[in-house]
Amino acid sequence: MSLKEQIRSDMKDAMRAGEKDRLSVIRMLLAAIQTREIEAREDLSDNEVMQIIEKLIKQRKDSAKQFADAGRNDRAAQESSEGELLQTYLPEQLGEAELESMLNEVLASTGANSMKDMGKVMTAIRKKAQGQADMGALSALVKSKLAG
After folding, report:
1. 8-state DSSP, 91
2. Can you name the CATH fold of 96-147?
3. Domain spans of the chain?
4. Is the pTM of this model over 0.85?
5. 3-state helix, strand, coil in the chain (%, to 5)
6. Rounded to an integer, what distance in angstroms lies between the CA atom of residue 40 and that of residue 28?
7. Model pLDDT for residues 102-148, shown as the tens digit of each residue
8. Displacement of CA 116 from its chain's centroid (Å)
């Protein structure tokens, strides 16, 4: 079953169970997927769906931080819970040691040794770690490795 089919199935389950908050988040996710498919004029792969999910999670984290900074803890909690629900559609997150190992493999295979190679390394590691790591944290790790 593809990721998109799983999301649609979960939407039906949420409707049957009367879970309004969960249903709302799933509908928002499906709308984002459908918009991207219309733009691309083709069905999206699971990796492309994961990219959309990652983007939505990042938006929820940023919004939650802004609401918390503004003293709107109720809205911050809502944004956080939406992000957590979206996170369930991504694979298990890799541990720091696994990321470190994966990064060392990519650095060896690409021959990267300076900051000029950052784009090449990020492209390669993004394919391997798609949905399994926070790309911001991964980018910081790559920078620290390449900077020496």
Report:
1. P
2. Arc Repressor Mutant, subunit A (1.10.10)
3. 3-87, 96-147
4. no
5. 80, 0, 20
6. 18
7. 888 888 888 877 788 788 888 888 888 777 777 777 888 888 877 76
8. 26
Q: Answer yes or no: are the C-beta atoms of 93 and 133 closer than 8 Å.
A: yes
What is the residue whose two structure tokens read 């990020």?
A: 122
User: For residue 141, what are the CA distances in angstroms to 47, 107, 146?
Assistant: 22, 12, 9
Q: How many residues can be counted in the chain?
A: 148
Place of tokens 């298990």: 92
**Cα separation, 57 vs 32, whole angstroms:** 12
Question: Using CA atoms, how far apart are residues 15 and 24, in angstroms rounded to an integer?
Answer: 10
Return the structure tokens found at 9. 């199935």
- Can you read off the two tokens belonging to residue 15? 């409707």
Options 1.10.1510.10, 1.10.20.10, 1.10.10.60, 1.10.287.1770; CATH of 3-87: 1.10.1510.10
> DSSP code of 110?
H
